[in-house]
Amino acid sequence: MASNLVPFDPTKVMVIRDVVPKTVTTFSMPFSRYGNFKVGGRGTVVRLVSGALAVFSPVALTDEVKQRLAEMGEVKYITALDIEHHIYLGPWAAAFPTAKVLGPEGLPEKRASQKNEDVPFAHVFTKSPTVTTIDAEFDSEFSYEYVYAHKNKEIVFLHRPTKTLIQADLIFNYPATEQYSKTDQSPTAGILTKIFGALTNTAGNGQKRLIWYGISSGDRTGFSNSMKRINQWDFDRIIGCHGDVVDTNGKGIFQKIMEWHLSESGNA
């Protein structure tokens, strides 16, 4: 992977944080989209009551990450949250060969065309039929929605016990302060980063417009239906892959950004 996209030595810059002690841990690191936008990257691990670990959007599998995982439990689920978040999927699947790998339709074919590592997918989310069960252990704590109308084929998860929404590219929360906190780079430096950040923070209406006119424009009805189902969930925290974690009032932020999709007819 080109050094202008991900750090050469992730150990030096990765931030490991217990968002919910003994239950939810994030692994945050710098990531530069196309080498120009400082978007940051983040993986999330959830420890189930059983002790099993569910990994979402895995990041670099460093020695520190392996040590933290060993302290938490056994990796049993590894999920690529959309067709873009799979860079480290191969190493994780190889390190934990008994884990069930989840991902969206199109990802196995994309990885094959790119000659990535061969990963055995246990569950591939499709528009129809959609995945309605993973197994009893996983389903006892997670709800999930496949947003097939998202351009990146997004899978969104709710960890019900901690009221945590876990997603990749559905909602951004810029700037990526935590993800660049162990570097000598400003998370807001660069004109392209500033422009992109203005469109993808949660303070104004830029992200609402970006999703309405861009991300969901191919199938706005399908996207809206997914947002309405997610809106029925009880969550307060949002963990995304890009930008800072929304530690509280996540439901309100979600409703603000998705306001037009949550209404009956939309409002441009």
Automatic annotation (TrEMBL):
Organism: Pleomassaria siparia CBS 279.74
Pfam families (UniProt xref): DUF4336
Name of the protein this chain belongs to: Beta-lactamase-like protein
InterPro entries: DUF4336, RibonucZ/Hydroxyglut_hydro
Highest taxon, organism lineage: Eukaryota
